[in-house]
What does this fold into?
Amino acid sequence: MDIGIGLPAAIPGVSGPSIIEWAIQAETGPFSSVSLIDRLVYPNHEPLITLAAVAGATQRVRLVTTVLLAPLRNPGVLAKQAATLDSISNGRLTLGLGVGGREDDYLASPAQFKNRGRRLDQQLETMKRIWAGEPAGNGAGAVGPPPVREGGPELLIGANSPRAMARVGRWADGFMSGGGGAEGAKQSYEAARRSWQDAGRSGQPRLVAGAYFALDEDAKSRGTDNIMHYYGEPLGPMISGSMPDTPDAVRSMISAYHDAGCDELILWPTIPDFDQVSRLGEII
It folds into this structure.
């Protein structure tokens, strides 16, 4: 099982240069990828722009959105942005997509909230067509550049509803679990495999998960404040309460996800201190 590390780009007050330095340190460590989550109404850094900057500072690690809220964006523009980032990074982009559950993000975009799932289905169809080099729509030609990976960047779907799972088999290369711990991920993985089989796909979907960490008591205390600021009630206490803060607890969590069938576990930081990168690397 691969281990990725999140970027501290969603932590309020973190600077742009420190995000780049974090990625450079991750590049020299044992991590398979760097990633970041997406919000609009929050003082986080926008994922695709941030990963483009990270692409120029790294050469090895994959660049992952965990996950990007696609319905906030225009599908043609998003397809071009993703293909551009994939090209700039020499094929290192993994595009995790979801719809999110916060209506204020949609009000700020602005975009319709109630039909966001249907819009994602339409976006996936449009983006796949663009990445295949086909005309973008009636009266519109092809949109470049072509992505490095034939058919488009590696695509993950994040969410657990039946409709979201159907997207895994129809459109995606895999599934991204972002909550519920290792046991919840295991159940989601079974549903993702069924979706893959129902769609008549060969092979297996790539199964990814994300979880928070904070190494030492002070980090957990500060990290809990950041988790609460981001998620609020009732999710904040649930997430922070299960967050590992010792090397043994992190190892135990990694083992649990491995046993659940996870192909890559991405560990998101809750504080921006650089020692969290090196300490996590030593555990791995």
